Amino acid sequence: FPSHDMGLPNPNSPVNLIHGQDATELIYSLLTQENSSSIYNLCSTEHPTRKTFYVKAADLLGLERPEFQTEGKESWKLVSNQKILDQVDGFEFKSLLPELVTEEETV
Fold first, then answer.
1. Please, what is the Cα angle at 47 between 28 and 77, to 5 degrees?
2. Mind listing the pLDDT tens digit of every residue in the chain (107 residues)?
3. Residue 64, Cβ neighbours under 10 Å: how many?
4. Residue 21 and residue 100: Cα distance in Å, rounded?
5. Please, which residues have CB within 8 angstroms of residue 102's CB and are 6 or more apart in sequence?
6. d(C-alpha 107, C-alpha 90), whole Å
7. pTM score, whole prediction
8. Which string of DSSP letters, residue by residue, matches 13-41?
9. Where are the alpha helices (DSSP H) in the chain?
């Protein structure tokens, strides 16, 4: 679990995650298709904030909630999965632990 003496940076930045079974299924789909020799971003369509994700994960694991930096400029990027969705017709991502991706603030 992340630890940072001065607080974790970028509390409002998105977390780019993927369910393990989704990753396996997508890789298998790509390996069995012709013309799939490209680079793909494998990530869920869900992007909870770092603060939401780490606070809820700490609660679920019974750990102390992390502190976050509240000052300074945040820098982040949102990873798009559109290219893989265009390549693998009809794929639907599994929900990442619903308790972790709900955007309700728990702090």
1. 95
2. 666 567 888 899 998 888 888 999 999 988 888 766 788 999 988 888 999 888 988 888 899 999 998 887 778 888 999 998 988 888 888 876 665 655 554 44
3. 10
4. 17
5. 48, 52, 56
6. 37
7. 0.71
8. SBP----HHHHHHHHHHHHTSTT--S---
9. 20-31, 50-61, 82-87, 98-101
